[in-house]
C-alpha cells in the first residue's frame, strides 16, 4: 500500500526518496505496535503520502507555469536590453546577412525555380529554325510556320509572334508608340491563359478581312482608361480602328523566350504590316504545346521529317533554314542567365557564411564572458537545461528580430531592382518576395540563431570543470583560443575571395569605360522610321531628302542623315563579303559576320566616325553611279590583311544583289553593340543604290536634347507617309550598356566591403577579448620586467598570423571560384596580378590595423591593477 501511495509523487521525487520512506516505514513497524491497529496505521500513512505527493505535483506545476519558456524569453529579452550595443551589433549582422541572402534568393527563385505562369508549362516548347553557322533556334517564316502546324501531329496548339513598337491612338489623341506583339490567333490558347475581362483572341480573328480586334494588358487598360472597362472601346492601331475585346490579368507575363517581354497589347498577325507570305523572310518566333502523351524527343523526330520535306520542296538555303530545333520553353526562357545567377548565389553564400561565423564568434565570446555568472547560477540550483535555454533564446530572439528587419530590407531592394531592371535577366518582372520565400528565410535565420547559441552553451555546461574556473581561465584554454582563431581565419578567407571578385569587376568596368567607341555619341539621337512603300515602284525617293532636310532645319539640330542600323540600334542587314574573284574557305565564311548599312551621304562624318583611308559616301554615289562601299578596319583586315583595301572590289552576300563594289573608304572600327563586345565588321553602301531597308533618322543636337515634339510635327506634315517607330538618345543607350556591369560591380563590391568589415571587426573583437581576459598574465609579465612593446608586438604578431593564414586560404578559395566572374570580365584576365595582390594587401592591412588597436592596451596596463584582479 505504501508503494501504491508513492505513485502519487512526482517521478523524480519518488526515485530520490522512495527507498528512504519505505525504510522508515519498515523500521517503525519493527519497533513495535502502536495504539492503532496495523491496518489503520498503514492506511493513515498512505493517505499522508498521497497528500504530500499531490502537494509536490501542484507546486511543481505552479513553478512550471511561472518559470516556463515564457519566463526564459522574458529573461533573455531583459539581458539583451541591458547589453544594447552587443544586441544591436548581432541583430544588425543578422539583418544584413539575411537581407542580402533573401534578396538574391528571391531573384533566383523568380527567375529559375518558379514554373512559368502558364497552364501546364512543362508542355510548352520553343520551335525554331536551325541555320548554318548560327546556334540556337531561329525565327521562322509565315509559310514555314503554317506548314509545320499542318504537317505535325505532335503539337496540340502552336502560335507565332513578332514583337514591335505599335502606333496606338486613343480618343483622337496623337499616336503613341506602345510595345506590343503581332500574334497568331492561338496565342493565348497555346499558353493556356484566360482573360481577366472579355475574351482572348481566336483563330477567326487571325484571318485577312476579319474585324480588327486587340487584347490589352491590365497595366495598359488601367493607364489609358482608369476604372472604366475598355471592352468594346475602339482604338487606332497603326492608323486603322480596332476593338478591344479582352484584358489580361496583372499576373500575365508574355513569354520572354519569344522577345515578347514587356508587351502591353497583342494584335492578330493577319493585320500586321509584315510580309507573312514570304517563305524566304523569317521573323516569327514560334511556341507550341505538346499533344497528350507526346514528348520533346518524339516531336523533334517528327519535325525533322517535316523540315527535310520543306527543304526539298522549296529548295531552302541551309544558311536560312537547315532543319528545326525543339527546346523546352522554360530552358529557352532562362537562356544564358545561369552563370549570372550562379555568381550571385556564390557571392551571397560567402557573405551569409561570414555572417554566421561572425555571429558565432560574438556569441562564443559573450558566453565565455558569462561563464562565471553561469557557474554561480548552477551553484544556486538552476538546471543546466534552463541555463542553456536562456543563452540560446538570446540569439534566437536577435535572429528573429534581425530576420524580420532583413526581410523588410530585402522586399524594398527587390522592388527597386525590378523597377530599375539594372540586369538583363528573364522573368525579372515576375520577381517578388512572397510568403514562401519569407518563411524559409526567417526559418533559416532562427535556425542559425539557435545553433550559434546552443553550441557554446552546451560546450560550457557539458564540462563542469570549465565553469569552476573564471572566465579568464576559460578564455585562456587552448581549445577556445583555436576556436576563436579558426572563426576569424575563415571569415578573412571568404572576405578575400569576395574582395578579389569585386576588384576584378571594378577593373573590368574601368577598362570598359576607357574603350574608344569609334564614333561621337554626344548629342546623337536615332529616330527609327517606317516609310510606306519603300523599295516599291511607287515610292518617291524625294521623301528621304525632304525628311533629312526637314530634320536638319529643326532648331538646335546640327546634323541629320539617314541610315539603316545605328549605334546601339539594331537595324542593319547581316551577311558576308568576299573579295571579287576569290572565295574564302568555308571555315572563314561566317554567313552573319558583317552588318550592312544603307546610308545617305554625310551620315558617316556626321556620326563622328573617323576616316582612316579614302573618302566617305558622297552625293555623287547615285543609283546610276559605280557601286561603292565604305568598310571598317576589321573588314579590311579580314579580306586584305597584307595590303590596303582602297580600290579593291568585294561582293556582298547580304544586300541581295551580289553586285561587285569598289572600296572607296576605310573607317575606324565602331562598337555599335557596346564596349564590352569585340569590334564588329561593318560595311556602308549608298542607300540610293540599294533602297530596300527601313531607315533610321540620325540627328545631332548642340544642346544634347532630343527634339521629340519637333520630330513628331515634322513627320505629321508628310500625311502618314513616314511614321515614327521609336526615338532614343544614343548617350542614354550607351550608358545603359554600363548599367549591368556597374550593378554587378556594386553588388559584389558591397558584399566584399561588408565581408571585409565583418572580418576586421571579428579579429578586433577576438583580440580585444583575449587582451582583456589576459590582463593578469600581462600584469605578471610587466611586474617581472617585460617591456610593454614586447607584449604589443606579441598580440600584433598573433593577429597578423591569423590574418595571413586567412589570406592564403582566401587566395585558394578565389582560385576555385574565379570562373564565376571570368565570363564578365573585359580587358583583363581572371588572374590579374594587380587585383589579387592589391586585394590581399588591403585585407592584410585591415587585419594588422584590427590587431594593432587592441594590442596597444596590452603594454599600457598597470601591473598593480592587474595583480589585484581576482582570478575568479
Please explain how this structure is put together.
Strand 1 (124-131) and strand 2 (134-138) form a beta hairpin. The chain contains 28 helices and 23 strands. The model is unreliable at 62-66 and 464-476 (pLDDT under 50). Helix 11 runs parallel beside helix 14. It has 872 residues and is of the alpha+beta class. The radius of gyration is 39 Å and the shape is elongated.
CA radius of gyration is 39 Å
Give the overall shape: elongated
Structural class: alpha+beta
Beta content: 15-25%
Quick gist of this model?
The protein contains 28 helices and 23 strands. The protein has 872 residues and is α+β, with helices and mostly antiparallel strands.
SSE order and pairing:
Blueprint: H1 2-6, H2 11-30, H3 38-66, H4 69-82, H5 84-113, E1 124-131, E2 134-138, H6 142-151, E3 155-169, E4 176-183, H7 187-191, E5 197-198, E6 213-216, H8 218-225, E7 234-237, E8 240-247, E9 265-268, E10 285-290, H9 296-314, E11 324-328, H10 329-334, H11 338-369, H12 371-379, H13 384-420, H14 435-461, H15 464-468, H16 471-475, H17 478-513, E12 524-531, H18 542-552, E13 557-563, E14 573-575, E15 577-579, E16 594-599, H19 603-606, E17 611-614, E18 628-632, H20 633-639, E19 649-652, E20 660-667, E21 681-686, E22 696-701, H21 708-716, E23 722-729, H22 730-737, H23 739-773, H24 775-783, H25 788-817, H26 819-822, H27 833-858, H28 863-867
Parallel strand pairs: 4-9, 6-8, 16-21, 18-20
Antiparallel strand pairs: 1-2, 1-10, 1-11, 3-4, 3-7, 3-10, 5-8, 6-9, 7-8, 12-22, 12-23, 13-22, 14-16, 15-19, 17-20, 18-21, 19-20
